[in-house]
Amino acid sequence: MNHTRFSAATFLLLTQLGSGCASTSRTTTPTTAVTGATTEVVGQLAAAAAQEESAPVAPPVPATPAFQLVMEQFADLRILRYQVPGFEELEPRQKELLYYLYEAALSGRDITYDQNYRHNLRVRRTVEALWPANEERRTASTNQQQIAQAEKFATYAKRVWFSNGIHHHYSTRKFVPECTPEYFRELIFATDAKKLPLEPGESVTKFLATLKPILFDPNLAPKRVNQEAGKDLVKTSATNYYEGMTQTEVEAFYRKKINKKDSQPISYGLNSKLVKDKQSRIVERVWFTEGMYGGALTKVVYWLNKAAAVAETPEQELALRKLVEFYQIGDLKKWDEYNVAWVHDTKSRTDVVNGFIEVYGDPLGYRAAYESVVSFKDLEATKRIQAIGNEAQWFEDHSPILAQHRKQNVVGITAKVITVVVEAGATAPKTPIGINLPNATWIRKEHGSKSVQLGNIVEASNAAEAGGMLDEFALDEAEKQRARTYAELAAKLHTDMHEVIGHASGQINKGVGTPKETLKSYASALEEARADLVALYYLPDPKLMQLGVVPSPDVAKAEYDSYIRNGLLTQLVRLQLGETVEEAHLRNRQMVARWVFEKGRKENVIEKVTREGNTYFRINDYEKLRGLFGQLLRELQRITSEGDYAAGKALIETYGVKVDPVLHKEVLARYQKLHIAPYVGFIQPRLVPIKQGDKIVDVKLEYPTNFAEQMLEYGRQYRLLPNYN
Question: Which of 114, 264, 313, 445 has the greatest CB tally within 10 Å of its CB?
Answer without folding.
Answer: 114
